[in-house]
Write a sequence for this structure.
């Protein structure tokens, strides 16, 4: 079954459905192509498809990937992916070409591998990141028509307009046997290499059985100078990733992390709005069966 979101990215896949079908029929005996109307519809169709198909191929952005992941849950259906979103962090992390022709070659000639994903509070899933704090809401609050017209620039402009005042929130918990307690403006719990199009977690693998965490810390009541300094810290994290060494950025790793915070703090799962408040995030090793590029390290 091939699921696609006609509104994802700039609608390129919707214009190539006949081409996609023709290619897929070279490998699969039965190809059912299904257009989805919303995230909830996509999730429902993926859930049903996991019971009736050997492979679920889908097209869209990171949010689409997250919807499919919520739908298939912990079933063993094989997933194939044609990235057509705005940023496509999952594709960047896995080395999947961000064009229809290249991604189809992976589906037709790639290899099936077991890759890791994240599970939050025992009920929600994320493929490459669970995040809270600065700029994270931009991924799901930027209007779709602006994303289609301006791409990644739309996220940046929206974030600068709406999220320049970094809210400070308590961050306490445990990861990898290490306790932490502070205030912060950003928490990234990462499984993938790419975050917002930047290789923040470049040394990682989606098969290493470990999640990586970055916490940008802040004092409880920062002055203007301390607030301004966080812009440089965030920029350093995006540009240099986990290699950066700054006193206000704490890095952790392990198989799970518990985070206690205020009940109004919203978590972002793969660019989609998630839960609020406390979170227990665990790494499910090899949970997702995924078609990946044949000769690339993932």
């Amino acid at each position: 079954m091939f699921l696609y979101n006609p509104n994802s990215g700039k609608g390129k896949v919707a214009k190539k459905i006949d081409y996609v079908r023709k290619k897929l029929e070279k490998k699969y005996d039965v190809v059912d192509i299904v257009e989805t109307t919303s995230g909830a519809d996509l999730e429902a169709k993926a859930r049903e498809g996991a019971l009736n198909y050997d492979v679920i191929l889908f097209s869209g952005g990171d949010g689409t990937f997250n919807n499919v992941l919520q739908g298939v849950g912990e079933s063993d259906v094989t997933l194939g992916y044609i990235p057509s979103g705005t940023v496509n962090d999952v594709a960047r992390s896995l080395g999947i070409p961000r064009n229809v022709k290249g991604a189809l070659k992976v589906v037709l000639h790639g290899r099936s591998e077991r890759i890791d994903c994240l599970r939050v509070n025992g009920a929600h899933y994320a493929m490459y990141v669970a995040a809270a704090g600065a700029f994270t809401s931009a991924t799901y609050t930027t209007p779709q028509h602006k994303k289609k017209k301006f791409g990644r620039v739309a996220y940046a402009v929206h974030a600068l307009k709406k999220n320049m005042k970094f809210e400070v929130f308590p961050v306490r918990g445990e990861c990898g046997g290490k306790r932490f307690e502070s205030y912060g403006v950003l928490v990234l719990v990462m499984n993938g290499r790419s975050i917002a199009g930047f290789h923040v977690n470049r040394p990682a693998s989606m098969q290493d059985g470990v999640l990586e965490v970055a916490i940008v810390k802040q004092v409880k009541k920062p002055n203007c100078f301390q607030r301004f300094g966080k812009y440089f810290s965030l920029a350093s994290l995006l540009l240099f990733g986990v290699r950066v060494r700054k006193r206000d950025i704490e890095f952790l790793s392990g198989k799970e992390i518990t985070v206690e915070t205020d009940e109004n703090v919203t978590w972002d799962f793969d660019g989609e709005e998630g839960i609020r408040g406390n979170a227990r995030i665990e790494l499910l090793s090899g949970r997702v069966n995924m078609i990946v590029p044949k000769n690339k390290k993932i």
